[in-house]
User: Fold this.
Amino acid sequence: MKRPTIADIARRAGVSKGAVSYALNGQPGVSEATRKRILAIAQEIGFNANSAARALSGARARAVGLTLCRPARILGIEPWFMGLISGFEAELGAQSYALTLQVVASPEQEVEVYRRWWGERRIDGVIVTDLRQNDIRIPVLQQLQLPAVVIGGSGEPSPVTQIWSDDGGAITEAVRYLVALGHSRIARVSGVPDLLHTQVRTKAFNEVCTSLGLHDAVTVPADYTGEEGSRATRRLLIGGDRPTAIIYDNDVMAVAGLAVAQEMGLSVPGDLSIVAWDDSPLCSLVHPPLTALSRDVSGYGAQAARELLNAVDGKKVGNVKAQTAHLTPRGSTAPPRN
Amino acid sequence: MKRPTIADIARRAGVSKGAVSYALNGQPGVSEATRKRILAIAQEIGFNANSAARALSGARARAVGLTLCRPARILGIEPWFMGLISGFEAELGAQSYALTLQVVASPEQEVEVYRRWWGERRIDGVIVTDLRQNDIRIPVLQQLQLPAVVIGGSGEPSPVTQIWSDDGGAITEAVRYLVALGHSRIARVSGVPDLLHTQVRTKAFNEVCTSLGLHDAVTVPADYTGEEGSRATRRLLIGGDRPTAIIYDNDVMAVAGLAVAQEMGLSVPGDLSIVAWDDSPLCSLVHPPLTALSRDVSGYGAQAARELLNAVDGKKVGNVKAQTAHLTPRGSTAPPRN
DNA sequence: GCAGTGTACTTGACCGGTTAAGTCACCGGG
DNA sequence: CCCGGTGACTTAACCGGTCAAGTACACTGC
Assistant:
């Protein structure tokens, strides 16, 4: 089956292919009657512009790129990324942009992928996740002048548009809630310490704990995986003065922490309260269901995609603050038993 | 920053761009010395062939497409898809093919996306998941002559290459294991009944149960979500003659089932044994860890990508049988308490 | 000494769009 | 009546590769 081209339309409409191009792109230069006729023919023969030809002649590639730099085993289980991707799609699909995905092993590889994509003119912009301090990707994106949005920065002024949320505020709310329930020994199991948003959360956690007079508030770094979540939880729970509440930086580690508590014969929430960051169906799935810091991950992704498309269109956009995660209390938090 | 083109290389090497093309593609027509020189220049200036230009002149687009037709909330939590995607990437990345993703709401939309991609010449082939009986996508793919591989068919002769695994054999093993432990009332919570692999599993489950004399073996259909998994489990457990073991078609529903059992005060595995299909870190995360039918999802994906690239290269490939899922016993299965 | 055969290139058409520049008919104003 | 302006097109160059066809030159064999 032959792919229809604008030449086919031109022939059937009895006009030149230039006229067809103008008609299809809503440009002036054709009469309304001709435009209608051309659009009808395009519709009839199922025409779709060859994206290669379009990209080649200087126009958009109509695709954006996303690199994921996490080991496969954690990518699979973390609902976060898929939620984000669904959000991108909702927005990109509506404007018939494609999403090109690449799983990589390191930030260096991400940079390589950006360079390749840029050279190949394969994409019009990229979505950057897992921002680090002095992230090596940012200068490269600037050098290549590749439109980009960063998901989850700190919200500070940045050369690249950021979609950020007030993680500090969210964690403060969680700590306040636990304190209100009567907890005074609160610990935290964090994500990868290199990531900027982990640092933001850690700073806010320390600040609120200090201001509330919780002196032994400790953060144990982990890496978002269940294994590390379990390990960190065990470390916290075997200590003499064990915490009565733990806040986890993602849902996977929180679920793992719950299992460790159960395995050690501790009751949740009786002996230990648990708060998960990033509410996902996973949190409501386990018993007891986990109190979580919820946000609309998919909406977050949609917003990022929207801003990226704006940036691609040359509209200069500044940082955008997304909805702050809010506490959704469920069965895993309660006043501590004495 | 200007993108380097073959013309830039040609100028620097003092040859024509045709020669550069031959050199870069390993074609005969240039001397070894010239080829080396050209490759060195390409390397030096960081040349990447413009994928649009390449695709336009009849060559490959060097991209494959994947559509995901599941609601966002289930996509996010199911480790299966991300595992699969990681597997694709491992293979595609190695051959510097890109993966283009699109989340859709219905098989009809998937067909539309295929047509659009084909018209746009955006991709060289597609990966098809969630095959149904008389799947409407298959004739379209044939009509468009779009290379494709289907993941998770029945293994029966098919117009489109299938990567399949012996799900019947796997479920038979699981049932035999439970019977050997002493169970006689075994139920199953299945995935979406329309999907071909669900039907294969249901058929095999019924057959092995009949052959082992288990007459009240029932399959409750669900949809892979935690909510449905919980509901199905409750339905099974409130009945008078409740099962002592349940096999779930995915890990998410199994985890949900575990929570329901705990919530109802039933001990797992004492009162109820649980087997999950598709082992993922999720299964080892909960307490007790779930006995699962494991397979190398990521390897499965890699194999599919490999076959697809073969199909794109015009090599005719037949159905490929992947590794059969094997039982990984963990803490959620034990002999039933009397 | 010259036809025949390679090898190592060059040339230029082509893929299917976009778009600047050109053409032509028609209209209104001076 | 002619001129300038505008609308509705057409023409053709261009994007950056690929590849068939053409060319130049060396070598080989009789």
